[in-house]
């Protein structure tokens, strides 16, 4: 396979995971939380790089996983223990973690380490920077997401639509929330290199919102639509960012997502 | 001398943003600055590309036009689609940001603008970019006018602003012109957001608006005192954050936000312990 085909393969793995997780996030009205997660993977990448001084993807992703989990934990703790409202807290947590990440990134760039090259890709995303071994990670995450989905589908289904009812029949809603959070962090962590920190949340939210607008009743069809739109958008975005090499993939993906969304938003109204 | 210029200009912006931010935090409107700071990027990029050099007035006009365009697109979409307001808002502003990033990466080189400016701002370049007619940074007069203007506005119209912040219906009933004050507040927030975008970068603008008022919000229950505490906190965090970045390296704008975050954590902890609440202010 050529490099381009490898990249497209990896991109579609990411697209499928994002399509599945995005639907749960939007249905559970946790879409904005994913924005916090995507911004807070950055300090983890920086810390992991400073600790191990090499650009081993799995180490960076481990760091990213830890800090994004930490950001959600601090968001929940703060909203429990202070008078501040959720949106203010989200702005605070998001900008604090992102600032830590940027500070570390500048620090690393100042330190003239030869292996530093490419860390900037994590911010806006560069699909072309994916290596064949990174695709293995995307595949593992896709496998995990699909397995978790099959095992806990009914749980997630019930708790997404009626939390009080599912609580009353003995379903553990907090565990279900944790599962969704876990899946979204996994997806975000493999997606950052390709799509970028700043715009990955759009990839999670916009295609699944379109899918929910198109198909109102059947959840499995919603999943199919969401995955389909995701793959389409990521493939076009990758091709465009290949044709204009300076531009980041994430930005193209968002632009295409929005144009597709616009068509369906307006079409939806006519019904 | 260079340090002093940077500190003065950044502090002036920090003062204006935390004064306006106090009202935003109370009214739960902080995300407005996040939306604005992301979505005005195409306007700024076009202003740079068309002009080929920095011109604050030009940037301000283009960014304002861009902001107006976004607000009207959001309103138009919201009127056509019901029940999906958050999705509309989220997709419109990331779309504009993405368009801005594409413009910057495609045409930025000829206009002295790159993605680093978008992320980190240009704080350290403040003293090197001087006016033609005086030995002072280009941003200084603007920062001074905006700073004094905002503080004067907040001081003079504190009563109507605080009344509409807590109860709009009540404010309407006692004859306060709610629409006027809302527009005044939002347009000042927009102007300060656009101007501080250049200094601290797109994502950190929201921290300048949110952190000092949030810290003050935890420490007191009175709006006047909250305003004063947040002004003091904003100055302190600018000074400490700047010297931290001089000492340790790293991005200056980011280290200001980190210092604010540490202040915030301290105030959460002390507030929990009940240390501050025992001191009667």
UniProtKB/TrEMBL annotation, chain A:
Q: Which organism is it from?
A: Raineya orbicola
Instruction: Please report the record's description of how this protein sits within the membrane.
Output: Multi-pass membrane protein
Q: Where in the cell does this protein reside?
A: Cell membrane
Keywords on this record? Cell membrane, Membrane, Transmembrane, Transmembrane helix, Transport
State the family named in the UniProt similarity comment for this chain: Belongs to the ABC-3 integral membrane protein family.
Xref: SUPFAM superfamilies: ABC transporter involved in vitamin B12 uptake, BtuC
Any coiled-coil ranges, and where?
Answer: none
Residue ranges annotated as transmembrane are 6-27, 36-52, 58-77, 89-106, 135-157, 222-244, 250-266
Q: What is this protein called?
A: ABC-type Mn2+/Zn2+ transport systems permease component
The organism's taxonomy opens as:
Bacteria, Pseudomonadati, Bacteroidota, Cytophagia, Cytophagales
UniProtKB/TrEMBL annotation, chain B:
> Which keywords annotate this record?
Cell membrane, Membrane, Transmembrane, Transmembrane helix, Transport
Q: Where are the transmembrane segments?
A: 57-77, 89-108, 140-158, 170-193, 199-218, 225-244, 250-270
Q: Where in the cell is it found?
A: Cell membrane
Q: Which GO terms describe its biological process?
A: response to zinc ion; transmembrane transport
Q: Which InterPro entries match?
A: ABC_BtuC-like (IPR037294), ABC_TroCD (IPR001626)
Q: Does the keyword Hydrolase apply?
A: no
Q: Gene Ontology cellular component?
A: ATP-binding cassette (ABC) transporter complex
Identify this protein by name.
ABC-type Mn2+/Zn2+ transport system permease component
UniProt KW Kinase keyword? no
- Superkingdom: Bacteria
Origin organism is Raineya orbicola
Which Pfam families does UniProt cross-reference here? ABC-3
Classify the protein's membrane topology as the record does.
Multi-pass membrane protein
The similarity comment for this entry is: Belongs to the ABC-3 integral membrane protein family.
């Amino acid at each position: 396979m050529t490099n381009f085909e490898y990249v497209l393969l990896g991109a579609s793995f990411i697209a499928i995971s994002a399509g599945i997780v995005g639907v749960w996030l939007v249905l559970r009205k946790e879409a904005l939380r994913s924005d916090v997660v995507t911004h807070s993977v950055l300090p983890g990448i920086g810390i992991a790089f400073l600790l191990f001084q090499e650009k081993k993807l799995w180490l960076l992703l481990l760091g990213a996983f830890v800090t994004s989990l930490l950001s959600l934990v601090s968001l929940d703790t703060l909203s429990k223990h202070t008078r501040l409202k959720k949106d203010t807290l989200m702005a605070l947590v998001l900008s604090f973690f992102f600032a830590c990440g940027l500070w570390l990134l500048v620090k690393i760039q100042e330190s003239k380490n030869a292996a530093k090259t490419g860390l900037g890709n994590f911010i806006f995303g560069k699909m072309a920077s994916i290596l064949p071994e990174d695709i293995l990670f995307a595949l593992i995450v896709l496998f995990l997401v699909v397995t978790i989905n099959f095992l806990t589908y009914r749980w997630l289904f019930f708790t997404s639509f009626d939390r009080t009812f599912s609580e009353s029949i003995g379903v553990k809603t907090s565990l279900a929330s944790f599962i969704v959070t876990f899946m979204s962090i996994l997806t975000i962590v493999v997606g950052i290199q390709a799509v970028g920190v700043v715009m990955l949340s759009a990839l999670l939210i916009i295609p699944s919102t379109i899918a929910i607008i198109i198909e109102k009743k059947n959840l499995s069809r919603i999943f199919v639509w969401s995955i389909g739109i995701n793959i389409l958008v990521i493939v076009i975005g990758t091709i465009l960012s290949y044709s204009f090499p300076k531009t980041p993939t994430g930005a193209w993906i968002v632009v295409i997502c929005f144009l597709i969304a616009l068509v369906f938003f307006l079409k939806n109204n006519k019904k | 001398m260079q340090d002093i210029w940077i500190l003065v200009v950044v502090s002036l912006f920090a003062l204006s943003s935390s004064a306006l931010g106090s009202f935003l935090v109370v009214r739960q409107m902080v995300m407005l600055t996040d939306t604005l700071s992301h979505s005005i990027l195409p306007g700024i990029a076009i202003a740079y590309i068309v002009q080929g050099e920095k011109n604050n007035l030009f940037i301000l006009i283009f960014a304002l036009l861009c902001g107006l365009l976004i607000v009207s697109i959001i309103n138009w979409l919201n009127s056509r689609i019901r029940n999906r307001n958050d999705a509309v808002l989220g997709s419109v502003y990331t779309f504009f940001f993405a368009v801005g990033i594409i413009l910057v990466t495609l045409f930025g080189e000829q206009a002295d603008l790159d993605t680093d400016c978008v992320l980190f701002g240009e704080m350290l370049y403040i003293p090197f970019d001087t006016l033609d007619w005086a030995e002072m940074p280009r941003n200084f007069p603007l920062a001074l006018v905006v700073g004094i203007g905002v503080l004067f506005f907040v001081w003079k119209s504190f009563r109507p602003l605080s009344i509409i912040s807590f109860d709009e219906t009540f404010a309407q009933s006692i004859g306060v012109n709610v629409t006027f004050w809302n527009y005044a507040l939002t347009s000042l927030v927009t102007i300060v957001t656009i101007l501080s975008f250049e200094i601290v970068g797109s994502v950190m603008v929201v921290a300048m608006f949110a952190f000092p008022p949030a810290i003050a919000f935890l420490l007191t229950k009175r709006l006047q005192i909250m305003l004063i505490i947040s002004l003091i906190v904003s100055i302190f965090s600018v000074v400490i954050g700047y010297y931290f970045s001089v000492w340790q390296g790293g991005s200056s704008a980011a280290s200001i936000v980190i210092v604010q975050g540490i202040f915030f954590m301290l105030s959460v902890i002390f507030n929990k312990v009940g240390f501050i609440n025992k001191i009667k202010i």
